[in-house]
Design a protein that fits this description.
Number of domains: 1
Number of helices: 10
Helix content: 40-55%
Strand order of the largest sheet: 3-4-2-1-5
Length: 205
C-alpha cells in the first residue's frame, strides 16, 4: 500500500465513509464476565464437550456439538448457561474501544460475543442480528451487524443456541431474511472503503 493510498483510506475512515469488518481475532485480549479470556471457537467447542459425558473430539465442529447439546434435554440448559456466561457482558480492552470509536459508517462482526458491542457503548449503536427487524433502523445511527448471530439473543430468549452458533447461517441470509440481507448489501455498496480487522495481537494492560 502506497502512502497516498493509505492517506485516502484514513481520510475515508475519518470522514465516516468506511465500514469495518471484525473477524474472530478482534476479541483477543477481552475478558468475559468472570474475568477469563473470551474463548476462541476451539476453546468454546472444548468447553461445550465438558457439559456432556463425551470425550473431546477435535474433528467435531462447534456448530455440530452445539446443535447436539441443544437437542438433548440433559445438556440444553447447560449449553445456554455456558454461552451466556462466556459470551455476554464481555469486557473490551482500551485498544478495542479506540479502534471502534472511529466514525465508521457501520461495523460488521462475525463473533458471537458482545466485545464489539460493549466497546461501542459511547456511540450507542443500533445492534442488528438475524432476529432484528431491519425496519427499525434509524437514519444517522451507526449499525453494528452480527453476521452469525449474538449470544445475548439466547439470554433474551430471541434465539436458540444452535441458531447462534451455526457458522453458515449468514450464507443463507438472502433466503431467510431478505430485508437484513438487503441492508448488509447496501452498506457494502455505499461504503467508499472497507477495513478488515481479522487478528489483533494482545496488548499489555
Amino acid at each position: 500500500m502506497t502512502d497516498e493510498t493509505l492517506e485516502h483510506a484514513i481520510n475515508d475512515m475519518i470522514g465516516g465513509a468506511a465500514i469495518c469488518f471484525l473477524g474472530a481475532g478482534f476479541s483477543l485480549g477481552a475478558e468475559d464476565s468472570d474475568g477469563r479470556p473470551v474463548p476462541r471457537a476451539t476453546d468454546l467447542c472444548r468447553e461445550i464437550f465438558e457439559i456432556t459425558d463425551m470425550q473431546y473430539d477435535p474433528d467435531v465442529s462447534l456448530k455440530d456439538i452445539a446443535e447436539y447439546c441443544d437437542n438433548n434435554e440433559l445438556w440444553k440448559q447447560g449449553l445456554k448457561d455456558l454461552l451466556t456466561r462466556r459470551l455476554t457482558l464481555c469486557k473490551p480492552q482500551n485498544f478495542h474501544v479506540n479502534i471502534l470509536r472511529m466514525p465508521w459508517r457501520s461495523v460488521f462482526t462475525t463473533n458471537f460475543d458482545d466485545v464489539a458491542e460493549n466497546a461501542l457503548k459511547e456511540q450507542n449503536p443500533i445492534v442488528v442480528t438475524p432476529v432484528f427487524d431491519v425496519k427499525h433502523l434509524e437514519p444517522k445511527t451507526m449499525p453494528l451487524y452480527y453476521l452469525h448471530g449474538r449470544a445475548l439473543d439466547i439470554l433474551r430468549g430471541a434465539a436458540d443456541p444452535n441458531i447462534v452458533l451455526t457458522d453458515s447461517n449468514y450464507l443463507t441470509l438472502r433466503e431467510k431474511n431478505h430485508d437484513l440481507f438487503s441492508a448488509l448489501e447496501n452498506e457494502v455498496y455505499a461504503a467508499r472503503r472497507i477495513f478488515l480487522l481479522v487478528i489483533l495481537f494482545k496488548m499489555q494492560k
